[in-house]
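User: Run a structure prediction on this.
Assistant: Running it now.
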Amino acid sequence: MNRREVLLLLAGTGAIPDPLLAIGRTVHKRVRAGTLRALNAHQNETVATIAELIIPKTDTPGAREAGVPAFIDVMLADWADDDHRQQFTAGLANVDERARGLFAKDFVACSEAQQTQILTDLDAELARLRDTNNDTSKNFFHDLKWLTLMGYYTSEVGATAEQHYRVVPGRYEPCYPLDQ
């Protein structure tokens, strides 16, 4: 499935309603500080690597260029509670444990094929949870995929290069007050 199909799926199912788009755009405004607030440098690089594998650079920018890792850091710092943050960082640690168990190195040091294998396993586990009607809301990979899509499609890059968002006349404003 390519990004355009994902976008059509999300748009068709109403998976990202207007209030969530507004939140996403507000978060992107907060990202500009450029410092990590919820993740350490290694965790951030793991998030960036996974996000880029989910939405790679093609003829349009990838997740890194869209600022998805910083978006996820801000979401974890400002919107997630302590339990959710701990669950997310434990999931990142689990990704490294899997990589060390299979390939004797951290996830970010693995080849792209090895990284893809680990993510495929995580996605298969998530699919099994869905197939058995189990709650996926506390699944790390489910959260990471959702945050990646939200971060990408509410970013300036995602809105302008991918969705061809245009304000006539004007420029991209991530959180535009409706009363203007």
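Residues 3-7+18-162 form one domain.
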